[in-house]
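MOLECULE: protein
FOLLOWS: sequence and fold
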Amino acid sequence: MDISIRLLRKDELKLVRQVADIVWPVTFKEILSPEQIAYMMEMMYAQSVMEKEFDEGIQFNGVFDGADAVGYLIWGHYGGAPQTAKLHKCYLLTDYQGKGIGSMMLQTAKALAREAGYKHLRLNVNRQNAKAIKAYVRNDFKTIETVDNPIGNGFYMNDYVMETDL
């Protein structure tokens, strides 16, 4: 394995969707209905949505094994709390999980946010995603809130809000 993480260009955002199309159905098959997964994929990973976020300053980072995209982390400013950045998305193909790469991704997100002058990094995680929660706790994130966010079409994101100090 030759793992690297780098900032994506706008014309590379399709790589995020390609990885999401593989990892999301596997990650959420026991947690969300197929209808909610399809809805959220379009809500978050439509090309136009990602391009708008990119233009607004959200940082899209690809995780690569050589030339192959195997994961992504997406982060940016969080308007809800001072000096706080938000880790919007952090996903890795299943074959690469359990090898320390997820922790490398989280440490990279923390370093990037710290370098940008932030003091805290916040994220939301589905309350039933035990594997991700365990990884976040292992990387010094603590649960600070429980939320149920309506996202449209009668669907909700039932999350823990977790945060770490930088």
About this structure: The chain has one domain: 3-165. The chain has five helices and seven strands.
